[in-house]
Task: structure prediction
Amino acid sequence: MRPAHLLLAVLVAAVWGVNFTVVEVGLGHFPPLLFSALRFLAAAVPAVLLVGRPKVPWKWIVAVGLVLGVAKFGLLFLGMSAGMPAGLSSLVLQIQAVFTALIACAVLGERPTRTRALGMAVALGGVALAAVDEGTAGPLGAFALVVAAAACWGVSNVLTRRAAPPDPLNFMVWVSTVPVLPLLGLSLLTEGPSRDLAALRALDWQGAGVVLYVAWVTTVFGFGAWGWLLRRHPASTVAPFSLLVPVFGMSSAALFLGEPVSPPRWCAAALLVGGVALTSLAPPRARAATGAVEAGAGEPVGVAGATVRMTGEAAR
Result:
């Protein structure tokens, strides 16, 4: 990988990691479901006018939009609003790689190798340690919401694998159009019109900047740059940089939000990141009879390609 490409990969990981801190700030301006709806609205418009028509069937766009946009991000923002720290959220969300592998095994018949199974066990051990640590310092209900968000992300990864979008940026922009109305409806029902209107009326430059960051910088730039790197390098070369996301997430939260990082949390981070590395980067066992469709030039076969592509939305 050229030095400029390497720096771009690190920049994308930093953008995605810092995004958790930005989301934490945004939750001080907006109710969580309204914030998520605004994020997708800003990500879709005007980008949807620039990326061209969808390149996959609408059933996949709608399915991923509902699971990733409504379920995953709704649960993530609710969990963070309920007290889940930004840095810890950036770490725990990476358990999506384990959920992806498990769901792919059940749905796609992609049996994990021993290395991948070991990685899942190590990552789960990291999450368990993080849960014990959080249980002494914060609400476990919020922790559970973020774990549920990771599970939904795993489902969306498998759906994306089935959709096999030829242009990840085009796909993500069109996916962003789907959650806007459902999230707005849920926000009106659960958060209330008065609270939503009050947040919109109180919109200031910081609130607007937060929405633009999570929409344009995190989604449009981050996902576009990640897809650009994947078209030029093997996924096995690009994927390890996604493991820097929780590093930047925890560091930025500690620096800008003053979130403490306890020794058990650092141990949990080491276990989870190491386990995710084994789970995501170990080549899956080939399927008999039907075989697996190769994700692209130099990419590993199986769900790893979908995981690598969708890791960009880890914030996100």
Summary: Residues 53 and 81 are 35 Å apart (CA to CA). The mean pLDDT is 83. Residues 3-313 form one domain.
